[in-house]
Write the structure tokens for this entry.
Amino acid sequence: MSQRDKILFLLPAAAIALVVLFTVLLFAGLAMFKQAFHHDADSDITEKTALVALILNPLLNQGRLDEARHFCDHFNRDALRLSLIRVDGKVEADSAEKADLLSNHLNREEIQAAIAGAPICVTRFSESLNQWMTYHAVQLDGGNREYILRAAVSTDRTARILQKATLTAVFALLLGGALALALALYISGRVRTPLRALNHALTAITDGNLDAPIPIPRAGIVRDFATRIAEMTTLLRANLAAVMATRNEQEAILNSMEEAVLLVNRSGDALRVNRAAAALFHLADRQVFNLSRSGMPDLLPHVQEAVKTGQPFEKEYELTSPSGKTYLLIKGAIIAKGDGDCLLLTVTDLTRLRRLESFRSDFIANVSHELKTPLTCIIGAAETILEEKDLPPEQMQKLVTMLYEQSSRLNLLVQDILSLSALEHRQNTLNRKAPAVALDAVLGNAIALARENAREHGVEITLTNSVPIEIPGDSQLLEQAVGNLLSNAVKYSGSPSIEVSLSRQNGAAVVEVKDFGIGIADEHKARIFERFYRVHKERSRALGGTGLGLAIVKHVASAHQGVATLTDTPGGGCTFRLTLPIPAATTPKA
Ligand code: ADP
């Protein structure tokens, strides 16, 4: 039982205790009164018996039994009942009843005591007189000690008063008990039960269940109290909802930011991190994180310095991981908090930017390099023509041919660069709304265009499998991609035959261009789709390759939401595969 319950039950318990105390006192008083009364009654009757014995003894000694009988029979019975009894128990005379009608009195307690020589007073209910009586008997000395004098007084009134008082005390005890019980029940029903229910609800609320209803009793002293608490909880809920909404909003903003954001203390412990920060530092949910484990050894000293000086900072850091280098721009801003200054770190990932920058400079270097060779040849040939007026016709023919070839190469290069740039702009733009392209027709056209050149190189192109598939897209681009793959296989593989196929696999159209030639070594495979990447640089240039063919293939595939991949042909050679997803609407029902 809780302290509160103890206090609540103290009141009825005190009431019960008081009732019990009063009853005990009453009983004790009654007992004392009874004792005193009996003591007085016993003394009185003993004295009176002795007095009557003084009268009767001479009569009996003188043989005047009849007078003694008469004395007893006619004694005022209201003052004292007198009985003259023989030692064998026979009643000789009695002031209350006719002696003949009375039974033998030998077994009466007071008679036995008198015969034994130790007279006593006995109080008992007299069946014959129908009332409470106190008896006292003595053996009379006169008449050869053959008679016993018994005196009796009525104690009925006092006994009945005492009985009434006892009944009243019992009644008072029962009434007091009932009142205390009623009080306990009232307290339990109106106070304790609602308080317990209230306590349960408040415990649920403190445990986080804010929706726990507050029970309000219909009446009773707890009602007002419960109503106030219910109002307070409603207010609390509303305030908390507002705080939560603001917090969720902030969290949503923080988490939707591309920049990683961390709130760190002067020891470098992260107090809060957003989703981007958790991803950047590979943090599991609620994982404790310290900047010393950031992989940037000089970050923590900078943070500590900034907290110490109160100066914000901005610095670029390099993070090296198995997946490569990451370039980060970290800005630190001081935030004053009650328990010490903190630093808000905003981390911007510059890796893409850096890669783009290096990609751009590589691209410019590559393009310049690719342009330089044909331009040098063109300038050289043009200079010779201009300076040598009398060039023999064959020489002139050679130089003009060179001019034509190198300008064609330049033209091809420029065309490929333009194609690539156009494709970059169309990245993923060929959506479902693009016109439907029949891939089998695309393959047919590309093969027809490549066949002439293939034949010149003694290569046979075969269409091994073709199913009618339509996808939304650009037929020209797709033809260009397949054409590039065919021309590469003809130019570089040295394979006498090329197999082309179109099939449907896992909801995608798969175009395969397979040769059985020299193949591509594993170390080149990862980079083969990069711009200007060549396996055999000189051979490619000599064969008029721009180094952009496969990059264009890759971009065409990705413009159609697909991918271009390279695998080895079993037994030797390359298999280039274009996997182009077929939108659900154009997938025929099974
Ligand atoms: P290029 O304009 O030089 O043909 P590509 O991007 O089309 O440029 O091809 C890149 C390089 O991949 C080529 O230079 C060539 O070395 C190699 N290559 C492409 N296709 C094949 C093939 N089927 N077999 C062997 N090597 C190939």
Remarks:
- The first strand starts at residue 81 and ends at 86.
- The two ends are 73 Å apart (CA to CA).
